[in-house]
Amino acid sequence: MKKIIITLLSCTLLLCGCTQSNIVASEGNRVPDTEIRGGIEIEWGQVWDDLDAQFLDKELYPFSESINGNIMDEENKIDLVLLVNEEITKEQASEYATAVLKGLNDSVATQDFSFNPSDEEFYGDFVSNNDVSVLVAPALSFEDPSTHILEDTIKADEEYRPVGMPAAE
């Protein structure tokens, strides 16, 4: 019995003596750096991977085939080509293209916090600062312009409107 009590007391002393109530000591009045920095180099491969992961999901977008595009920073221009299967309406194409554009902006905004993310009535700063050309076409016949489901151009700083919809009067 004496051995058990001594063992328990030893364990208690060991545990109490080896722990510290404040493991990380504060070092004065340091505050985190929350300043937004400009000139961030965007990792475009990651942006395209993010878009593929989100918008080529066959459960959410069964008509999706591929997302292609080109970002021309010097010209402030975005070209986006969305290839789909032929089982898609113009309204679905509009909703899909609008969602992909917002997703593009939000992926860039996660890398560079100087860009505001999208919301219900806003593509976000990155997309809104560029002229955007969008093409939604069937994957099997995208080279034939007569089969294109949707083609649209949205100018930089144009008032928000979904892709393929007329501008508000």
TrEMBL record:
Signal peptide region: 1-21
UniProt entry keywords in alphabetical sequence: Signal
Identification of the protein by name: Uncharacterized protein
Source species of the chain: Hungatella hathewayi WAL-18680
